Amino acid sequence: MSSAKLKTIILAITALFLAVSIIAFPKVSVDASLNGLKLWWNVVFPSLLPFFIVSELMIGFGIVTFIGVLLEPIMRPIFKVPGAGAFVFVMGLASGFPAGAKITSRLYEEKKLTKTEAERLASFTNFSNPLFIFGVVAYGFFHQAALGIVFALSHYLGNICVGLIMRFYRPNERSLSEKERATPAIFIKALKHMHRERIRNKQPLGKMLGDAVQTSVSTLLMVGGFIILFSVLNQLFARLHITDSIAYVIKHLLLLLHFSPDLSKGIVPGLFEITVGAKNISSLQAPLLQQVIVACFILGFAGFSIQAQVASILADAKLSAKPFFIGRLIHGTASACAAFVLFQYVDIKQSSFQVNAVVESLENHILPENWTSYLQIGSSVTLITLIIYILTKAYANMKKI
């Protein structure tokens, strides 16, 4: 039997098994779907939509070209990507998964990156949202705002390590961009390139804005589908005791590392969805250092849910997701190692001035109040945007008739 036929049979059996499981456990499936939908509706959609729209407009206005020329002398020697990669890096860091992959794919479609550069860039420009790291994981789950410094620095350093390693991915390919040197005239040259890019894009502002909204909403609808799907899978696997079987194997790996075997109860769900994994890890009876190291690995690994979202976005642009998958393993491992080192230098009870400021603000319940208001606003933003999106699509289809 050929490998293609075997793959077809395996995929068919897997799909049939999932369909039967959903039918067999309808309440579990519906509850999990609702939880995933609430997460997407209240948080993910309103959080990512502004970043997606702004990034589309910045590409159209030539701002990304300006940043690309200006930062080419920095990004090219360090990461072997064009200067525009700095824009992707910052936007991915600020907005969280899967913004880095989305913007990278867009730049590749605009021919600002080669295929290899795009795959290389996507591997290290996807991050967990800073609000999620500091507010949800550090304060909400671990009840130690100071740990946010450890989580964040470990997470960012881990991704930088991925970038430094991935610079050797297909190292001999030639770049589309010019090799710039850091000279006083580079700023003027960057402005000229930005103006040329804006003139080249002759679309009116209204058309650009409309296209940016439609593209962003379409991507976020896909992201929502993956969130709901993996929320259901996570609960079904737990109900079918598949999670327990995987945890049994991971227990032995943890014992080899002299870690508490109970941490496997948080690692397995974390392999599918980082929020559930981080929450479970924080509630287990294990040394805090071990909990932090494992949580940092989960944050770097990102979970199969996010990996599937990124793979889908890259596939639409005909980019390989293999460098991204390899990067998640490197990211998780490097973040865990960084957490082990950084934890020794962070006093959880008596932290630095910056950490104390965060702790004080959180203890005054600023975060919970803002978070509740944010959820209410987020729900309204999602509803209004989807209504506008549906009306716009309907109007466009009517014009075609």
From TrEMBL:
- Enumerate the InterPro entries for this protein: Gate_dom, Spore_IM_YlbJ
Give yes or no: UniProt keyword Transmembrane: yes
Q: Hydrolase among the record's keywords?
A: no
The alphabetical list of record keywords is:
Membrane, Transmembrane, Transmembrane helix
Q: What's the protein name?
A: Sporulation integral membrane protein YlbJ
Q: What is this organism's lineage?
A: Bacteria, Bacillati, Bacillota, Bacilli, Bacillales
Membrane-spanning intervals of the chain: 48-71, 83-101, 121-142, 212-233, 292-314, 326-346, 371-391
Domain Nucleoside transporter/FeoB GTPase Gate residue range list: 43-141, 220-314
Top-rank lineage group of the source organism: Bacteria
